[in-house]
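Reopening: structure tokens for the S-adenosylmethionine complex, inputs below.
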Amino acid sequence: MTVNFKSHWENVYQLKNENEVSWYQEVPSKSLDLINSLNLTTESKIIDVGAGESRLVDNLLRLGFKNITVLDISSKSIEKTKQRLGKKSKLVNWVVSDIVDFIPDERFDLWHDRAAFHFLTQKTRINKYVDLVNNSVNSQGNLILSTFSTNGPLKCSGLQISQYNKNSISELFKEEFKLSYSETSVHQTPFNTNQEFIFNIFSKY
Ligand SMILES: C[S@@+](CC[C@H](N)C(=O)[O-])C[C@H]1O[C@@H](n2cnc3c(N)ncnc32)[C@H](O)[C@@H]1O
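Re-run output (same inputs, fresh job):
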């Protein structure tokens, strides 16, 4: 059965409140810690891919970042995040697109993705994502990629996902990126279940 990913995600954000989804975080602490560990300036160009309603953008604005792009396949999630931010939403570049169809008109210093990449399960879509990252991140730029680990769930939001470990993820990006940091991190869902992720920082050669 082929899944219409866009309808799936529009439906999720239409039906659920922010804290009624397993991936909800009041503060995306792990991502923020990793971002803080990088040599970014407030002028750095940052994209959050598959951001959904994540509060990462609120925190990036609070930290003074001026060039933020937020992308999601779901227009509903983008609309909800814009509403939460109010006037501040004008400071952000918003993109509604399936990531594999995204054609950026700029390059990024940081590509951040928590729990979106692992929804790509077909080889062709995974390869398109890798090519896009390779072509869209500046040299010396960074990729922060977090996915379910090989000890994590096999599905999320009713969809199949791809699990990764340190070796399999570094293998995928090895042509253009060096894996500079990797750690496992357990996310406690709002339903008090645990999900094991790996958070990775890659640096572009
Ligand atoms: C599990 S949620 C994570 C949301 C957010 N990154 C966070 O950490 O709270 C996955 C998100 O990826 C988005 N997504 C899934 N497949 C996508 C695709 N092919 N292109 C763009 N976004 C996608 C979904 O709409 C959803 O918002």
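Residues 5, 9, 23, 50-52, 54, 72-74, 77, 98-99, 114-116, 119, 156 surround S-adenosylmethionine (CB under 6 Å). The longest strand covers residues 137-148. Marking as resolved unless the reporter disagrees.
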